[in-house]
From TrEMBL:
Family listed: Belongs to the amino acid/polyamine transporter 2 family.
Segments of skewed composition (Basic and acidic residues): 1-10
Cellular component GO terms held in the UniProt record: membrane
Organism whose genome encodes this protein: Xylaria hypoxylon
Keyword list, A-Z: Membrane, Transmembrane, Transmembrane helix
Amino-acid biosynthesis keyword on record: no
Cellular localization per UniProt: Membrane
Location of region: Disordered: 1-26
GO MF term (any one): L-amino acid transmembrane transporter activity
Protein name: Amino acid transporter transmembrane domain-containing protein
Domain spans labelled Amino acid transporter transmembrane: 53-444
Length: 465
């Protein structure tokens, strides 16, 4: 997790001497002292535990964090944008996400002490940038936990034929997410990545095959269109775009994951493998299900296959809903825990105090995510708000700023930099447009849907949308 000496701003943070967690007689709270042999052993154990990710394991962890709920919103986005625009945006934004992740990786290699996204923001904007991005970082991860809580509630309601109050299923989902988020090392949950990937692939496959068979049995073509829906306005279009953006949100955790790599320079292999897999899965999911179902496609997409098949698909998708959701809580917890106990052995989570503080923190983050899910109980708008406020920055305009401020060498208008200047300027502009337009659209859509009575109230027993 941490090298022998890490930097925080301009000050080096060495593992020894450290601040004492347990104050002995005559010792002042916060006093710097030498580590005991036991503490040194705990630190060595912690270093080994948090420094064992290779590029293949990193790919698996990125898949766990990335390929989940985003795919479930794709067909509805295609229905709004049309097949042509949907495909172009899905592929184009995916390629830009791969590039921005490459920039993030270059920053990590150049500045090894950067452990989380906020550390990179400090390099660009000082203390203000560090605190601002810290808040954005944690809120985005909690939003992701909330979106998985909401999806878990929808899944359980569907599987039980809406057998009980949705709040109860929301609580059950939150408890599962809490338990799966408890392992603090990313390497420890890598094995779950294979289950996660198989889960989402099978769920999407079942939905695609079932909707295709249903369309064939109907004996008539669906009403899909190559062009945007006729009744789609600015708000609808931006909601659809932000749902695609949400699908490419893996950059937010990249610093955190790379900090556990034993060979960080191998990250390039991981992001290319992940990026190509994402583009293929998202484009095929959006295009095929939309072409089979047509304009009546639902979000999340697993609801589009009819009652029985939806139950099968949601049953198969339960692992991805909870495994992918839990890792976001783990990343947020690791950031907060590491910041609070920066100069302490407690940060390694291999002492009694470390485990107690870790469990309490994960519980708090999970409850926060559950509250968000109940307060904004409709899938597309929850993804849209998250994309607009946070992913627009983490995936687009902040990596572009990193290239200009931290990576670039020479004039941005020099011959060797001109193409990269244009590419990063494009990423920056896209990010700002999504931030402004998407935030307006998602808030307006929530207001309109509440006014029209199309959605349930917050903290209600009725089904989420």
């Amino acid at each position: 997790m941490m090298s022998d000496t890490k930097k925080d701003g301009d000050q080096a943070i060495a593992p020894s001497p450290a601040l004492s967690d347990q104050v002995s007689d005559g010792e002042t709270v916060g006093q710097v002292r030498e580590l005991t042999d036991v503490e040194k052993a705990q630190m060595q154990d912690g270093e080994a535990r948090f420094n064992r990710l290779g590029w293949k394991r990193l790919t698996v962890i990125l898949i766990v964090e990335a390929i989940a709920l985003g795919s479930l919103g794709m067909p509805a986005a295609f229905a709004t944008l049309g097949m042509i625009a949907g495909t172009i945006l899905c592929v184009g934004l995916g390629l830009l996400a791969i590039y921005s992740s490459f920039v993030i990786g270059q920053v990590k290699l150049k500045y090894p002490h950067v452990q989380h996204y906020a550390d990179a923001a400090r390099l660009m904007m000082g203390k203000f940038g560090y605190e601002l991005v810290s808040v954005m970082f944690v809120l985005q991860l909690v939003f992701l936990v909330g979106s998985h809580t909401l999806t878990g509630s929808i899944a359980f309601l569907n599987l039980s034929n809406y057998g009980t109050c949705s709040i109860i299923f929301g609580v059950v989902s939150a408890i599962i997410l809490f338990l799966l988020a408890l392992p603090p090392s990313f390497a420890e949950v890598a094995i779950l990545g294979y289950i996660d990937f198989a889960s989402i692939t099978l769920a999407i496959g079942v939905t695609i095959i079932a909707t295709g068979i249903q369309r064939s049995d109907a004996g008539m073509a669906s009403d899909w269109s190559a062009w945007p829906a006729k009744d789609a306005g600015f708000v609808d279009a931006f909601i659809a775009v932000t749902n695609i953006v949400f699908a490419y949100s893996f950059a937010i955790c990249q610093f955190s994951f790379m900090d556990e790599m034993h060979t960080p320079k191998d990250f390039v292999k991981s992001i290319w493998v992940l990026g190509i897999i994402e583009i293929v899965i998202y484009t095929l999911t959006g295009a095929l299900i939309y072409s089979f179902v047509g304009q009546d496609v639902k979000s999340p997409a697993l609801l589009s296959a009819g009652s029985l098949v939806s139950k099968i698909a949601f049953g198969v998708a339960l692992p991805v809903i909870f495994i992918s959701g839990s890792i976001n809580g783990t990343v947020a917890g690791r950031y907060i825990h590491g910041r609070v106990y920066r100069d302490s052995v407690t940060r390694y989570i291999n002492t009694s105090k470390g485990w107690i503080s870790w469990i309490v923190l994960i519980a708090f983050l999970t409850v926060f995510g559950w509250v968000l899910a109940e307060a904004i109980p409709f899938f597309s708008d929850l993804l849209a708000i998250s994309s607009s406020l946070f992913i627009s920055g983490f995936t687009f305009y902040l990596p572009a700023m990193m290239w200009f401020m931290l990576i670039r060498q020479g004039s941005p208008f020099s011959k060797e930099n001109l193409v990269w200047t244009g590419l990063n300027a494009l990423c920056f502009i896209i990010g700002i447009v999504i931030l402004v337009g998407g935030t307006y659209a998602s808030i307006q859509d929530i207001i309109d849907r509440y006014a029209a009575g199309e959605v349930r109230g917050a903290f209600s027993c009725s089904s989420p949308e």
